[in-house]
Specification:
CATH topology: Protein Yjbj, Chain: A
CATH superfamily: YjbJ
Oligomer: single chain
Strand content: under 5%
Structural class: mainly alpha
Helix content: over 70%
Number of strands: 0
Shape: globular
CATH architecture: Orthogonal Bundle
Largest sheet: none
């Protein structure tokens, strides 16, 4: 699934995002609103990872997500 599909189905994808990254709060997910850059930035902040690692995790989530 590409990011446009994830963004378009954000209401359905929120649960999968929370499953994958359990430290994200409801407020975090609300702020992200399906925006890839917001997710990357929030992962950096919550998990204390570098941008490259956050990008890698999001890319893996994107490729693992089923339509």
């Amino acid at each position: 699934m590409n990011w446009e599909q994830i963004e378009g189905n954000w209401n359905q994808m929120k649960g999968k995002v929370r499953e994958k990254w359990g430290e994200l709060t409801d407020d975090d997910v609300a702020v992200i609103r399906g925006q890839r850059d917001q997710l990357v930035g929030t992962l950096q902040k919550r998990y204390g990872v570098a941008k490259e690692e956050a990008e890698r995790q999001v890319a893996a989530f994107e490729s693992d997500s089923k339509a």
